[in-house]
Amino acid sequence: MANNTRMEMLNASIRGVMIAFGCVAVGHAGEPLRPGLAVADVQTCLPPGQIRMDGEVSRRMDGCMENLITAWDVDRLVKPFRIKNDGVPEGGFADQWRCDYWGKWFTALAWGYAHKPTAENLQLMDRAVKELLATQGPDGNIGSFAGETRLSGGYDVWGRQCVILGLTAHYDLTGDQAALDAACRVLDCLIGEVEQKHVRIPDLGWPMSKGLAPSVIVESGALLYQRTGQKKYRDFSERVVAQWNEPGPLAPAGLRLVDDALAGKPAREVGSPKGYEQLYCFIGLCELYRASGNRRYLDAAVALARNIRAEELFVTGTGTEGELWFKGRTQQTRLVNKPAETCVTAHWMYLCWHLLRLTGDPAYADELELSLYNALLGALMPDGRWWGYYDSLMGERVPSWVMQADAGLSCCVVSGCRAMMLTPFWAVMQAKDGPVVNLYFPGNVDVKTAAGGRTRLAMDTDYPRDGAVKITIQSAQPDAFTLALRIPAWSEATTLKINGDPQPVQPGTYARFSRIWKDGDCVELSLDLRTRILDAPDGNGHVAVKRGPVVFALDERLVPAEQNAQAVVDRSAVLLDNVKRSDAAAERAGVWIAIDVPFLVDGKNRVLTLCDYASAGNRWSPDNRFRTWLPQPLNLQAAYETGVTWQTLSANPTRPSAPVAAADAAKSRPK
Question: What average pLDDT does this structure show over 578-593?
């Protein structure tokens, strides 16, 4: 079948399909639940192709898709499943995880394709699935661990989970039953193995994570139950969750993830402080809540997220030191060794996305936006060809090292790709009574209204560079629905007009307008982008500069070191209310947003130009340093002498370097 014909059939088949975490979402809120679901989402994802995003975020997504995701050689991703070269080193616990890459890479590819479908990328998806399925054993397993090494370490189970995510993503997008059947056989094989060998999932892995890594398989059971209605999959996931309360060799008192989160324990004391794996387990609980209706699962995830927001997150919307929660909110101004793992950023965003869908609480959309514009974009190289593994608040940016040379990847490279490609799925969502705008961007969105009609929201904005947002209704006929617009908690002085008439709004809520909307109706929103000075949570006198959702930083391209100069932010309300962008400075330095901030330098009024955190240090070299938290006063001579070096941002023995171009990291894929 010709590619164009296949594309036409595929595009027709995916109407109404909604992608979730590697899989379809649960259906529109208010519609009858399909088999396998006990509860519906409050906000659901729009079908693929209904959001067209332009602007900076779209540009960064395109760069990541073109220069990394679609450039990668499928053979390098599938080969570990053919030769099964993962295993546990003798006498060690740090088993390998080449099995991690295919599923996460494929999910990013599928999400990227869903928004901008091309025949070439569809062909790449088909080939990637076909080659992976060719490695499936007679027992149903698809894995990179051979023989007796299976179940000997936590990452064998972890890898099977990633495979199931990728295969279900393909099924959700294309309806390919063979992909879903293969995913079911993978989980059937695992269930059979653990029962035959009398193995408990939380007993696998290495001591520090106390069984967190293999426990992520909870998500697979919930996802496959949602798609097949086969109770054995839900039962398996609930059995693993029950085992969290049982004592074991790795966790003598049990992991107790649900009970301890509900009891209000801090994230660093729930199971294990290993942020990435812990978040992954709670994402699984969200899916299991959809499948079972057990409210404890959702409440536990909400409680964990509440503590992370209160005690762990940096100003940029991420956290961890050495991949561990460490009460980072009050420690972020010091030199943090190996801070803010990109996998943690990505999975924090995934958890917020699930909680936004399940609860409709706009606070999770605020968190997604904060992480997107700061931590996530800051970890991505400007052209999208590579990611950082750790992401400091000061010093320099250091590319991720390669964990397995044959695969040529690290976990953070593929996790970052997925988080970027997730963006359109939460930017605008669907509620029972109409569309919900969570992110403002230039572009347009086609939405289904409560009455069953179709309406386009055309958005015109330069947000977050500018606070003005114009949304125009484009509809063939009048239609009654509710339009919900997120009013960020930080936007204290928001104005909103509909066809010129002022409307009341409240920070930290959705402004909801139920009316009969007509073609040409216009919503004008002005968000409060006054510059704010944030005091360090530890009370040490440092300050950070924030404008809307964007954190700003000193960059030595814009503010060079200066001898014998002491600088203090001028906190005069009048001056800060009138902080202006400096587009010329931004262009000269190669940054996205630059603003002129009033300082007192040696007691005299002076403007220093700061840039957005994601652009700070974006040359990714030792000679392009930056700083986010600013001591008061700040010694401009030593402003960038923070003690952060590439060694504090890498586990590699030598400074890693990113591929010069995609072809240097991956072979050209076959035509």
Answer: 96
Q: How far is CA 40 from the centre of its chain?
A: 22
Could you tell me which of 614, 313, 491, 428 has the C-alpha nearest to residue 45?
428
Q: What is the pLDDT of residues 280-301, one digit of tens each?
A: 999 999 999 999 999 999 999 9
Q: How many CB atoms lie within 10 A of CB 537?
A: 16
Tell me the residue type at 188.
D
Please enumerate in sequence order all residues whose Cβ is within 8 A of that of 331, keeping only pairs 6 or more positions apart, or say none.
321, 538
Collapsing DSSP states into helix, strand and coil, what is residue 138? coil
- Categorize the per-residue pLDDT at 85 as very low, low, confident or very high, splitting at 50, 70 and 90: confident
Tokens of 31: 């519609």
Amino acid letter for position 387? W
Global pTM reads 0.95
Integer Cα distance of 202 and 289 in angstroms? 20
Instruction: Look at the chain and count its residues.
Output: 671
Residue 530 to residue 545: CA distance in whole angstroms? 11
Q: Which of 101, 18, 116 lies closest to 65, judged by CA? A: 116
Q: How far is CA 407 from the centre of its chain?
A: 23
Instruction: Report the relative pairing of strands 51-53 and 634-635 from DSSP bridges.
Output: unpaired
Neighbours of 394 (CB within 10 A): 25
How far is Cα 169 from Cα 176, in angstroms, rounded to an integer?
Answer: 10
pLDDT for position 9: 45
d(CA 129, CA 166) in angstroms, rounded, equals 9
DSSP characters for 353-422? HHHHHHH--HHHHHHHHHHIIIIIHHHB-TTSS-BBSS--SEE---BPPPSBTTTTB-HHHHHHHHHHHH
